[in-house]
Amino acid sequence: MADERISPVEALSDASRAYGAIDARSEQPRWGMAVDLERCIGCWSCAVICKSENAVPLGMWWNRILTEGDALDMPATDEHGRPDMHWVPLACQHCDDAPCEKVCPTSATWTNDEGLVLVNQDACIGCRYCMAACPYGVRVFNWGDPEFPVPDDTGMVATRPVGSVEKCTMCVHRLEEDQVPSCVWSCPAQARIFGDLNAPDSHLVELLEARNPRILLEEKGTHPKVSYLEPRRRRPIEEVTE
Amino acid sequence: MTDTDIERDDQPRFSRRSLLVGGATAGAAGATSVAIGAATREVGAEPVPSIPVDRVVRTTCSPNCTGSCGQLAFVRDGKVVKIQQAADYPDEVYSPRGCMKGLSYHLQIYNKDRVLAPLIRTGERGSGEFREASWEEALDLIAEQMQAIGEQHGWDSIHVFGQVPGSGYVHKGAAYRAAATLGMTHGTSFDLNGDLPMGMPITFGVQNAEHEAKDWANSRFLLVIGSNPLETRIPDAHFLFDAAERGAQLVVVDPTFSATASKADTWLQIRPGTDAAFALAMAQVIVSDGLADLDFMRAYTDAPLLVRSDSGKRLREADLVDGVAEDANRFLVWDRAAGAATPVPLDRLGVPDGVDAALEGSFDVTLVDGATVSVVPGFAHVVAELEQWTPESTESITGLRPGMVRAVARAYATASPAAILMGGGTNHWYHGDLQGRALALCATLTGNVGRSGGGFSVYVGQYKVRVKWGPWVNAGEDKAKIVASIYFLRGATPDMHEKVPFPAAGYKGLICTFANMFVQAPDVNTLYRTLDELDLIVVVDPQMTDTAKYADVVLPATTWYEKLDLTATPVHPFLQLQQPAIDPVGESRSELDMWKELIRRIDPAKFEQFWQVDEVDAIRMMLAEGGPTEGITYEQLQAGPVRLNVPDPDIPFLAQINDFEPFPPQSLPVPVETTRAFVPTGRIEFYKDADQFLAVGEQVPTYKPPYDDEANPPDQYPLRLLTPHSKWRIHSSYGNNPWMEEIHGDKAPVLIHPDDADARGIADGDLIEVANTRGRVEAWAHITDAAQPGSVTLHEGWWPKSFRAGKGVNELTSSAVNPIHEVHYVPNMWAPSTGWKDCNCEVRKV
Question: Which of A138, A211, B768, B807 is the most buried (most CB within 10 A)?
Fold first, then answer.
């Protein structure tokens, strides 16, 4: 039975596979991502497909959508008395200087040669120092047997053992087959741009140069490889007086 | 292999290239990786393997959202283990399509609420007490009871209700074919759902006239009114940003601060139900500032056609000359060059060469009987009406500052092209037709009709039949009798059109397929009184909804991952298949199977004649009819989405605007002759001279206040209850999805402004009652500045389980029927469109 199976990427049609292909790649990729805060509509499609792709249990999210506002999808009132709201999708920032990696006593958290911060689940002893060290709060811990809303063995990767910490892998299993992470594929607003930061002709690098990106918690000195593109400047219609 | 690959293979890990070049599977790579255990940098060097799958099936996600999004079902061991967008559209701007709900549909397939076997009621209706039965037993029982009803009361006293045919022509169509076979009445959804934009048939003679979504990106100015595409059109929302990136301005008109408003250049916080007053004020500015395209009005609309001052009716050639045949009875304009009334052709738009058609003034004509009457161009009536609705005079109605309305009107009228995107928030009112007519006036005055990047598009409801489906939905010469479901819900009305085939004996049976009708219909307490009269309620659904709980028999239906169907949508022009990814779950069966089995039992002869067909036969029957499907084959569709034979971009009225063909174009699936009476002039009509319009003073677009003020007077029910669509559900579908509930919770929040909350002593999170004369629910207050003072917002589609008490928010909504919607009767095209948001209430702390 297993012999007849094929990789989920091999099983794609040519059109679908072409859609998900990584655009430009250097000799030594350094993977990064940009999130366009103008285009993000707070729909959680990226978060849901992450949960699905990676078999993330109920109660846990590797990727969440924060509302910059009052509550989920609710605006705050700005200094001019106007409602204001943005969404900020948040997952592992894949820091060049990852605090989680520094504190890991077993080196279960490590950085691969393409710049991805990963967790070796078998080496993780569940001390959760990394969760305390991560300024972005993007790591989650398997307190008990994972619960799933559907029969077992869904998703595209194995589940993680009880007592281990897990988080976004940038869908490293998909990169192996030249496909963008699932959150990038599934963003209906095309707000996520994935690519090789070392490839000058990648769409990602072009956008980062053009759009004056910001990084989250720059003061922490973590040097994330995930950047955020600011919303466009509004052009409000000016009231006429006559 | 390149040098790069060789270098990469030298890395102490299994790189992408080494996996591919080495021919090893991911699993094998894992098996040969370095042993783990030492706390070194190398411990993590093992690649994370993908778990292989058995297959990937390309299908289409098609609940009642209009998305029609191509999806891939990843199947392992006969189970769907992931759903992800197919992203394979030949027109790449449509890739990917699909939202978080579609991506989590496998949680619906394997939901704890999934109905797995036929159920026969054992307790009281609604008790939820059932016993499992075999299909044989359930079908025998239903067939026997249908026959009893049919013989005693007439087959038309069985109502077949299903949602939106466009979401699946084969299986939804099978219900029409069954109704045609047995003589049952089939219901409607587009009008019952209040999504039929009655301003469209009244003005343009068509069911609807939306542009395909990608055309938004071609606009220079987008006026989004009563619509929240960021939450309710998630796959298409990006086209707004594409437009903005090209320099378009985005203006959002909404009573509450919506997700879409958060992206707008300008947000106008209009008072609920006053969109017509705003649109009329826009039109008034456009006309008075000289920004109207009067040549466009002359050529394509009824603006120059003369109206008699004595009767309010249009002047016809037979009024002036003897012996004019009825079908050659032309309309007339006043030719300023000749100083006389002159006829215009019926078969061609425009004004004859050399005729200088007046749009204002009053003129005298002599009738055949020698009498003299004064006539005025229809446009003069429009302009006279607009004088009442200036930005200043409408401020007290809309709450909008006149300077803003004036500025928006000018920006809209001077941007070219400019689009209006209207949604249910504007349409779902008793006078939704007037709101639509006023916006249509703005679009037409500025020449934005039949123009890419322009248009007046109403996006609500996956109503659209885009194929010629007659051979499938009819049983030979017999067609289903279609009764607008509002008449099932509340009974016949005094002004019901004579063409409505309402059953003489009333209703005795209901077969409800793929619809959570008893929660999601308006005014459900009235509906429940109808249900009390029924001898048989059958509900066909994959989920144990509250509607299914109230059934006598529940039949377990397949989801669209378990059956074959054909789908299309108004918002993009791709015809797609739903292809089964897995076997039916439990004992579930498709609707086609169910209907076949019922008809085989009830009428074996007709079964032999009409029902020896499968899904592929049905699809081929529809494709073979040609027109939009000319040349499209089933085999092509198996490979992926195929664009219908429609213009690119797909926009309405091109033949009218470019080739001067009279209105209306055909609204599938009915022949154009059926809808021609909607606009007797063959032009875009802003002056309606039918008696019913004259009687209520709605000849020209005007504003009337919310209708529910009569049933629920504002002094007792001072809050407008807004029930917009939620982004977390498609109506009530996904209301039991564990991932969605994890994000947004399972308690229905009532959004209320701090001022209204303070006045009632309500704190954030308090349990509150929301009530009016029709019903009441208990839910939880969420105090927010996003709400407008004087209104509360409770999203539709929450299941009753998400309330503390009540059958859901539709206990409060209205089923009132506007007699203007009964002037003609063509189901889903000119029929009563409900006013969900036309609903007053009061709230109090419980």
Answer: B768
